[in-house]
Automatic annotation (TrEMBL):
It catalyses: alpha-D-glucose 1-phosphate + UTP + H(+) = UDP-alpha-D-glucose + diphosphate. It comes from Frankia alni (strain DSM 45986 / CECT 9034 / ACN14a). Belongs to the UDPGP type 2 family. The gene is galU. This is UTP--glucose-1-phosphate uridylyltransferase. InterPro entries: GalU_uridylyltTrfase_bac/arc, NTP_transferase_dom, Nucleotide-diphossugar_trans. It comes from the Bacteria. Keywords: Nucleotidyltransferase, Transferase. One of its GO terms (biological process) is UDP-alpha-D-glucose metabolic process.
Amino acid sequence: MPVTKAVIPAAGLGTRFLPATKAVPKEMLPVVDRPAIEYVVEEASRVGLRDVLLVTSRTKKAIEDHFDREADIEAALERKGDETRLRRVRASAELAEVHSVRQPSPRGLGHAILCAAAHVGDEPFAVLLGDDLIDERDPLLAEMLAVQARFGGSVIALMEVPREQVSMYGVATVESVPTGPDDRYGIVRILDLVEKPPVAEAPSNLAIIGRYVLAPEIFEVLRRTEPGRGGEIQITDALRTLALNAVAGGTDAQPVHGVVFTGRRYDTGDRIDYLKAVIRLACERADLGPDLYPWLEEYVAAGGPKGNLS
């Protein structure tokens, strides 16, 4: 069954960005001149996933509003003849058919995904986390959909991280799968998973990043999954159940595969990495880079904050 739906969990409290996120959802913080979550919806739409479900909370109405039409602003821009800004304002409402459901309490990523069960139904679906922005030039999600179409089951995105950082991620035990001439990235079979292991106990440095293509069987597994690390229902634990069952050759076993991503990923969940993402993306913009990058070079050459450059 082809994948047609995307789920974007967006119910987190955003405590790392307080006080900016006291009244503004972290997903609405601008990355250059668009909110972070717009990049994510655009990524889903680009591969044909135009049925998008936002899993939000009571305080996240601004996210839903962003993907709706805003008649007053559009009318004002039309009167001014500002076609450029008018196109930008309308773009978010035209990306996809955006729906929303509320997660009543913050019980973990696994629980947020479970909140999407009624909307998704009995078909595979994609999950995109808003903290991970994938450069539009790198077709990670398209590759994951191709792997899911080939093998069935579920597919997760993996990326090599420095060994000292493995305790921040879910980490995979894998075996290689032969790749074909059209495969952009490496493909592995998942043998086991562990959520945020101590560095000394991590089975590898292959970390799960925020892209998943999940079989609908994940919902029943999530319903049986007990709270894990942090007292939350972890999607890593549910995927581990599926992977171990597949390795054991269980009845109706659903395989779990990984795509080892080697492209450009922008982490907006951390303040420093968020700032790096804004600078990198702005420098690469044709309308901003020619002015920003020379200033940045001059700023660094003058000693940065230790210099006297105004």
